[in-house]
Amino acid sequence: MTLNTRDRVELDHFQSLSSTWWDEEGPFRILHAITPLRLAFIKEKVHKPLKGLRILDVGCGGGLLCEPLARLGADVTGIDPVEENIRVAKAHAEEMGLSIAYLPHAIEDMPSNSKFDLVIASEIIEHVADPDGFLKACASVVIPSGGIVITTFNKTFKSYFLGVLVAEYVLKWAPKGTHSWDKFIPPQDLTKKLLNLGFGHQDISGLEYSPLTREWTLSSNIDINYFLWATKTEI
Would residue 169 count as lying in a domain? Predict the structure, then answer.
């Protein structure tokens, strides 16, 4: 059976928001706020300079994470099945004078001989139609000893109450309907899936927001959001 990770409802939702990717006060303002933490987590786990590393950002949206990675010298490819996202990403990268390869692809569209030192799937696995197939396809393009970074939501009462109800319907940090709690993945499940795909060494951090300081920080608390790093150990 041919892999298809596209969820038409999800794609239509993000298509409707594609013009707002670089509006720091718009629908993606939380992604803007946490991108420095995403970058810090990646830099810490890679344990080497990013310059020259081949990095694939799966579900790159408008390129919010691709651009800082490219500024650090990485050889970045960003893919997204929403063509308008790719158009926006290309235009912004050109405006910034950055060389980033952007493709209107889902992960299953990547050539079988594509290989990367690092694959990033940030805030995307909770939006795909086939999470297991998605992970397997991501794993297939990671070189031996390469790494994968996944950032997503835990599946807890807190993630439903704070990550969906409060964030979308009260604080309006994201448009209503952006996230479906049913598609969230507990970290212990994701860890097992990655182990089965040959990713041994793993590390995890949580993400917390302080209403007092209005700042996001990395944390040991993984009740709502978490960042997971894993290294491909198969030969």
Answer: no
Q: What are phi and psi of 21, to 5 degrees?
A: -55, -40
Output the CA–CA distances (angstroms, integers) from residue 177 to 16, 22, 93, in the order listed. 12, 20, 29
- Sheet harboring 225-232: ordered strands across? 101-103, 75-79, 54-58, 116-122, 142-153, 225-232, 199-210, 215-219
- Where b means 16+ CB within 10 Å and e means fewer, 143-166 reads eeebbbbbbbbbbbeebbebbbee
CATH code of the domain containing 219: 3.40.50.150
Residue 207: count other Cβ atoms within 10 Å of its Cβ. 21
Full residue range of the structural domain in which residue 78 is found: 8-153+187-232
Percent of the chain with pLDDT over 70: 99
* 119-169 per-position pLDDT tens digit: 999 999 999 999 999 999 999 999 999 999 999 999 999 998 888 898 888
